[in-house]
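Give me the 3D structure for PP2C family serine/threonine-protein phosphatase.
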Amino acid sequence: MSDVKQLVAQLFKSNHIPIPAHRMALFEQFIQNEQTQTAATIISQQQQALMARWKQEDKLATILEQPLRVANATVGKPYEAKVDFGQTNWNDIVAFQVEGLEQVGLAYDGTTKQITGVPTQSGDIKVVFKFKIEGEPQEAAFHEKPLTLIINPDPKSLWKNLPSDSTDPYWKEDAVTVLAPLSDRHILVSSKRGRSHANVGSFREDDFAFANLENGWSIVVISDGAGSAKLSRKGSAIACQSILAHFKDAASIESLIQFDELLQQHTANTGDDTQKKLNRFVYNTLGKAAFRAHKQLEAFAATAGVTLKDMSSTLVFTLFKKYEIGYALLSFGVGDCPAAVLNKDVSAVTLLNWIDVGEFGGGTRFITMPEIFQSDKFATRFSFKLVEDFSYLILMSDGIYDPKFVVEANLPNVKKWQEFLADLNGNNQDGVKVELRPDNEAIEEQFSRWMDFWSPGNHDDRTLAIVF
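Predicted structure for PP2C family serine/threonine-protein phosphatase (468 residues):
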């Protein structure tokens, strides 16, 4: 009764109908009248219906006006995004669906409330979010809210692959991948032009070489031509071929016979004297090869009318030979191309050189620099290692080192090399696997595909040599 009285009193007041004191008894009778009671109930119900309808309309307008943000997708990349109403405070939605996803390779799962799939095209994709809110009858039509799903293009597709000028006198193939026997092992090596060069149709600057020598030694060489040097593609080629030619000379073949004698003395007597003799031999023998490469680069530059700096190239090479006691490895390096050997069960790594690195690449050195041969550090660029056996001998240019190892401090960490081998074995975002077996007929194609891995910001030439 009090609710009816309060409702009628409020109604009278809003319509400016006063109830004087001498009419209060009459007002009480009016309130108790059955018709008044019925009318008040109807008014109350209508008020509640109006308010409920307004709240519903207000919530609907809010949902239609408020943006619904869904994470951006990328073409070719598996996509998964939950439609979360908690962030938008749309708790009144009791049923919804998303239409238009199928056209781009996506679908909405009502059970998990997720949009999933692999987008097939890029752009601002228009889809329709259809929904019902609480309080609406089951047979009511769905409301429609247009949405935009941003699908970014595959970053790889933004890069052009323009062929280099094959008529250029210093042209080289844009990509080379080779499997070949080497000593009692095999070598798998690939050198590919970086995306930054392919995008403008410029040349591959990296180079490599390998060979079995007549005296039982084998050699692997890689060189990374500086992208800023206009003839570094020729510089890296000369550096590699010069090292190969040096060790194929009769004098070098004869010289390496001395190593057999020194090693025999060393294994019989582990004193410092034989170690010093071996170190001196490595320094003299490999030093001559490195200096020969420098002089040939110098001679070519003079003939071609360019500066030695125009041919700037790094250089790393390793000779190895099998003895009864294991493998001897002799190495030299200048620049930022690591060389390493992994033991038989891949539980330890031995670095064969230290690399020239510095802030913003300022520490990079090249075989074209005369000061390399005058530096106090020159003797430290050589190494001699004797290992019982090995699983992999690996040389790489910075196009591999930068994305896969990132910093120099990771190189001595065998776990990083284990991760690198796992990457080669298919543990990568593209699932590209290289089966490192000499009888794998698809190994060159697999390796070439793996070399095209995507790494944001790393678009330099890539050269990787694996002896296994």
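The radius of gyration is 38 Å. Let me know if you want a second pass.
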